[in-house]
Design goal:
With 121 residues, the protein is an all-beta fold. The strands form four sheets. The protein has a three-stranded antiparallel beta sheet, with no helix packed on it. Strands 2-3-4 form a three-stranded antiparallel beta sheet, with no helix packed on it. A three-stranded antiparallel beta sheet has the order 5-6-7, with no helix packed on it. It contains no helices and eleven strands. Keywords: 2Fe-2S, Iron, Iron-sulfur, Metal-binding. One of its GO terms (molecular function) is metal ion binding. It comes from Xanthobacter tagetidis.
Length: 121
Amino acid sequence: MNEYSAGKVDDYQDGDRKVVLCGEAEVGVFRIAGEFYAWHNRCAHRAGPVCQGRLMKRVLEPVDADGQVRAQAYDECEDHIICPWHGYEFSIRTGRHPGNERVRLRKAELIVRDGEIYVRA
């Protein structure tokens, strides 16, 4: 399996991402909280360019005593990527959709060697 360069570790600040062409596939490489993650750039819903979507904390909708949602909050421990086509959310760390664990992104192998990042797709 071929390895493709995704740049140097020092090129990525926290919260950065880069979409890398790996042969005929695209892979998104993310640095979140000092850790690197790599996902194929195809949404599990309709194959949209998920890795080019918005990054944000997981959205929560707390329910009050009457069973009503009055506001939204954010889970500061969970970073999500939101597909720009239809708004499907996925965990950057696990690739899973928060509402259906069977729906997930396809992981790409990520290698950090001598300060360089490589992906295998």
